[in-house]
């Protein structure tokens, strides 16, 4: 059995693959080594050891946000080794997972729009170009954190239109003091801010929310996708909850910039598992 994990900052999805099956298992909180300590990572993974104690796991494939440096890979790898006692551990980025799931052996542009955002050019085997995401403080345009951050800022500054501000207040009873404490003094501020993004989806018919989301996606395209010298020669695939929730806006903007959309997938885990199953259990 091979254990597969695809993790963003908010959620990690796990599944088991064998020669004859793909078992959809459970979701756990997101595991991002940029914002979690080794102890915190281990505490998220540990409950899985009981669930899998009767399974013979021969390898673990973990694809996660923040897993782009040796230090962060080691941090996640040590936790996986301690919990599963498995020596065959392979760790890569969530962007690599998206490439394998959405593009496979084909070339193309791949974009992530979930809690954060990211993009790359994929040649069918590896990532050949990548504009740095820079995370939720310096980048992540179009991601849930950036959308949520703008909503909260507009609400607290009373820039949000009165009628939509009333709805926001009814659903999110927040104060300036509470927000500042959660953002600047509490752990996981990115997860906290991303929690407001569903509000924009719920009220997307309102001009304010539509314009906010459209502007976020436009920034993502202009500050990321259009910076690839050969962007116009590739199809582009999107994955992530934000991309999936706002497909109409993404398709409209891609038409504007002459980008051909190949597919938009909410969660790559199933396609990723199918791709890896074909590799490790060839027929």
How is this structure best described in words?
- The mean pLDDT is 91.
- It is globular, with a radius of gyration of 19 Å.
- The chain is built from 14 helices and 10 strands.
- With 283 residues, the protein is an alpha/beta fold.
- Strands 3-2-1-4-5 form a 5-stranded mixed sheet. The protein has a 5-stranded mixed sheet with strand order 8-7-6-9-10, with helices on both faces.
- It has a domain at 2-98 and 269-280: ATPase, nucleotide binding domain (Nucleotidyltransferase, domain 5), CATH 3.30.420.40.
- 42% of the residues are buried.
Supply the CATH class of the domain at 2-98 and 269-280.
Alpha Beta
Q: Level of helix content?
A: 40-55%
| Relative strand content | 15-25%
Q: What is the molecular shape?
A: globular
User: Helix tally?
Assistant: 14
The biggest sheet, with number of strands, parallel, antiparallel or mixed sense and barrel status, is:
5 strands, mixed
CATH superfamily of the domain at 2-98 and 269-280: ATPase, nucleotide binding domain
Terminal CA distance reads 16 Å
CATH T-level fold name of the domain at 2-98 and 269-280: Nucleotidyltransferase, domain 5
The gist of it:
This protein is an alpha/beta fold and 283 residues long. It is 46% helix and 20% strand.
What is the topology?
Layout: E1 2-7, E2 11-17, E3 22-29, H1 38-45, H2 47-51, E4 59-64, H3 70-84, E5 89-93, H4 94-102, E6 108-113, E7 117-122, E8 127-129, H5 135-138, H6 144-156, H7 162-171, H8 176-184, H9 189-194, H10 197-202, H11 207-223, E9 235-239, H12 241-245, H13 247-256, E10 260-265, H14 269-280
Parallel strand pairs: 1-4, 4-5, 6-9, 9-10
Antiparallel strand pairs: 1-2, 2-3, 6-7, 7-8
Helix pairs in contact: 1-3, 4-14, 11-13
């Amino acid at each position: 059995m091979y254990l597969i994990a695809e993790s963003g900052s908010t959620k990690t999805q796990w599944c088991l693959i064998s020669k004859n099956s793909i078992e959809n298992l459970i979701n756990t909180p997101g595991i991002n080594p940029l914002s979690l300590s080794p102890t915190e990572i281990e505490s998220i993974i540990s409950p899985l050891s009981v669930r899998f104690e009767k399974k013979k796991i021969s390898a673990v494939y973990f694809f996660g946000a923040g897993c782009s440096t040796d230090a962060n890979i080691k941090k996640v790898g040590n936790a996986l080794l301690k919990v599963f006692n498995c020596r065959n551990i392979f760790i890569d980025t969530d962007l690599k997972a998206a490439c394998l799931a959405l593009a496979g052996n084909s070339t193309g542009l791949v974009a992530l729009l979930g809690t954060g955002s990211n993009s790359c050019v994929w040649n069918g085997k590896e990532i050949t170009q990548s504009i740095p995401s820079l995370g939720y403080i310096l980048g992540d345009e179009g991601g849930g954190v950036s959308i949520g951050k703008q909503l909260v800022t507009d609400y607290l500054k009373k820039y949000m239109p009165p009628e939509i501000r009333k709805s926001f207040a009814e659903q999110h009873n927040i104060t300036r003091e509470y927000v500042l404490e959660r953002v600047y003094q509490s752990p996981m501020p990115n997860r906290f801010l991303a929690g407001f993004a569903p509000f924009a989806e719920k009220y997307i018919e309102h001009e304010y929310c539509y314009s906010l989301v459209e502007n976020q996606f436009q920034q993502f395209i202009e500050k990321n996708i259009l910076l690839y010298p050969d962007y116009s020669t590739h199809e582009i695939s999107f994955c992530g909850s934000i991309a999936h929730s706002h497909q109409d806006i993404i398709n409209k903007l891609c038409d504007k910039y002459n980008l051909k959309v190949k597919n938009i997938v909410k969660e790559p885990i199933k396609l990723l598992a199918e791709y890896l199953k074909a590799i490790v259990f060839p027929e």
